[in-house]
Design a protein that fits this description.
- The chain is an alpha/beta fold and about 220 residues long.
- It is about 35% helix and about 20% strand.
- Strands 3-2-1-4-5-7-6 form a seven-stranded mixed β-sheet, sandwiched between helices.
- Helix 1 packs antiparallel against helix 2 and helix 1 packs antiparallel against helix 3.
- The longest helix is centred in the N-terminal third of the chain and has 15 residues.
- The relative contact order is 0.12.
């Protein structure tokens, strides 16, 4: 299917069905369109590797644009995986599904990247966090994913209107590793800049912009 046709049909699916494309809801049409534009702008040749927690129209979009896409999805409890796999728009050959709670499956992210057929040491060009929404699960998704993000890659966080996810969004707005890109409805987009990766096994809480701002300290250069 031609890219222009796929883009139009994805937009129409999101627009016509509203939040009911599958039982857990789906990304609004404006977000789907923005995501497509962002991938075109930042990865003219297409991203090498994309990752998401959750499943829906984003899975079809990312699977069609990426050389390799990994979808971490529960696989039961709603019809999202069934809807994706049954869609005529779905490009199955590029998409690798990891079934089960991301709280239990993301810890082995590097193995899943290898199992998907990506190159050894491949970093993630685009990541969407849209899995379990209860606290602290979005933060767990983020913790597992962020050390593997490419410099100048993109990170998207969905449903930032939910208070616990909003706190993650506010944290990222102040974090030195990211440049805020856009807020489209309830989905926030960030660019992972070239700042060093914050040690996922360290502390350094006083170096994080969110904490420094809350305490009234001067930001670090």
């Amino acid at each position: 299917m031609a890219e222009t046709t796929l883009r139009r049909r994805l937009f129409e699916e999101a627009q016509v069905n509203g939040g009911s494309w599958h039982q857990a809801g789906n990304l609004p049409a404006r977000v789907v369109d923005f995501m497509w534009n962002a991938l075109d702008l930042h990865f003219p040749g297409g991203p090498n590797l994309t990752v998401e927690t959750g499943c829906g129209l984003s899975t079809i979009l990312l699977g069609s644009r990426s050389r390799k896409h990994i979808c971490f999805t529960l696989g039961e409890g709603d019809d999202s995986l069934v809807r994706v796999r049954g869609s005529s728009l779905f490009r199955s050959e590029a998409t690798h599904f990891v079934l089960g709670p991301s709280q239990a499956t993301l810890h082995d992210l590097r193995t899943h990247i290898q199992n998907a057929g990506a190159a050894s040491g491949q970093t993630i060009d685009f990541a969407l966090i849209d899995g379990a929404h209860a606290y602290p699960f979005p933060e767990l998704d983020y913790w597992h994913i962020y050390p593997h993000l490419s410099h100048w890659g993109l990170l998207a966080i969905d449903d930032v209107h939910i208070p616990t996810i909003k706190r993650l969004y506010e944290f990222l707005r102040e974090d030195a590793m990211y440049d805020f890109y856009a807020l489209v409805e309830n989905t926030a987009f960030f660019v992972r800049n070239a700042k060093p990766t914050f040690d996922p096994y360290g502390d350094g809480w006083d170096l994080q912009g969110f904490n420094r701002k809350a305490l009234g300290w001067e930001p670090l250069a």
